[in-house]
Amino acid sequence: MAFNPNELEPQFNEQRFWRKLRANLRRAGKDVIRHCLCLYYAAQKPETPLWAKTVVYGALAYFIIPLDAIPDAIFVIGYSDDLAVLSAALVTISLYVDAEVERQADRSCGSGLATEKQKKSDGESLFFLSLETKTHGPEVLDVK
């Protein structure tokens, strides 16, 4: 049975997911973005079971939906509840987050996540630049 994430409408919608991801790159932070991408790519794997995909799309829906326990508009702490939900989902489905899923997430995030040294020097600018330009990662950039 093929799983279509858009069946969870209006809670989860791929187009809204990518739009929110791109629109909130700086405000959400690297951890939130990478957690979202790991969850998303794990759910794309055919061997990921339906229960795990449901957990993923529930967490991603929480990220998308503007009604949060802590509103995203609050500077600094606005995405802390999203990070908690995304982290719990990652722990729950951790068996399905393999090295390939992490590579896909890192590729989408850009080379700024490659090493700790890069992160500390110019990783932030590389990370944000790669998601905002039209030269990296079709999953991120082909959003309309």
Characterize the largest beta sheet: strand count, sense, and whether it forms a barrel.
none
Topology as a string of helices (H) and strands (E):
HHHHHHHH
Helices and strands: which structural class? mainly alpha
Strand content: under 5%
Distance between the termini: 28 Å
* Radius of gyration from the alpha-carbon trace, in angstroms: 14 Å
Number of helices: 8
| Share of helical residues | 55-70%
List unreliable stretches of 5+ residues.
111-144
Shape: globular
Domain module tally = 1
Number of DSSP E strands: 0
Mean pLDDT: 75
Question: What does this protein look like?
Answer:
- With 144 residues, this protein is mostly helical.
- The chain has one domain.
- 62% of the residues lie in helices and 0% in strands.
- The chain is built from eight helices and no strands.
- The longest helix is centred in the last third of the chain and has 17 residues, at 116-132.
- It is globular and about 40 Å long.
- Residues 111-144 have low confidence and may be disordered.
Topology:
Elements lengths: L13 H10 L1 H4 L1 H15 L5 H15 L15 H13 L6 H11 L6 H17 L5 H4 L3
Helix pairs in contact: 3-4, 3-5, 3-6, 4-5
Main location: membrane
Protein name: DUF1232 domain-containing protein
Membrane topology: Multi-pass membrane protein
Brief overview, please?
Keywords: Membrane, Transmembrane, Transmembrane helix. The protein is built from eight helices and no strands.
From the structure above, extract its key features.
144 residues, mainly alpha, globular, transmembrane
